[in-house]
Amino acid sequence: AIAFFLIGHIAAQQEKKLHEKTAQNLSTAMHGEAFAYAKYLLFAEKARRDGNPELADLLEKTAKTERFEHFAEEAKLAGLVGSDAANLKDAIQGESYESSTMYREFAQQAQQAGDHEAAQRFEEIRQDEMKHRDAFTAALNKLEKGHPGGY
């Protein structure tokens, strides 16, 4: 479902209309690049703790390529970033879905499966996502009111 939010955002934001399959492929590619970025940073952190600084540096360098080249280039093609107001609306939509639906369901399913630690973590993250949604909503309201010291 998250992919559909991103695909919908891509379609809404792009200046030049992309073919639907191209937009889907960009969404899939961006998810992969973003996941690789986060994963490689975690791998680097572990390598550094294990006393392997050269490996840690390699993983961090690769992670940066995934994020600051691959993801950024794909995001530009997809028209991922819009106006500040549009970006906040998109962020609010994503955080709302995560807090009201996704993490709630994940926590319930994990609890039912007996995975209590995962259920607790999903619920904690859900609470964080609600805070993010609320902060983004406040920022959007401030932006739309043209607050003098605002965004």
Quickly list its features.
151 residues; mainly alpha; 5 helices
Number of DSSP helices?
5
Query: Mean pLDDT score, rounded?
Result: 92
* Cα gyration radius (Å): 18 Å
Sketch the topology as an H/E string, one letter per element. HHHHH
| Helix and strand composition category | mainly alpha
Quaternary arrangement of the chains shown?
single chain
How many strands in all?
Answer: 0
Q: Termini separation (Å)?
A: 30 Å
Summarize the entry for a quick read.
The chain has 151 residues and is mainly α.
Please describe what this structure looks like.
- This protein has 151 residues and is mainly alpha-helical.
- The protein has five helices and no strands.
- The chain has helices at residues 2-13, 20-49, 53-78, 84-113, 116-144.
- Helix 1 crosses helix 2.
- The model has no long low-confidence stretch (mean pLDDT 92).
Topology record:
Elements lengths: L1 H12 L6 H30 L3 H26 L5 H30 L2 H29 L7
Helix pairs in contact: 1-2, 1-4, 2-3, 4-5
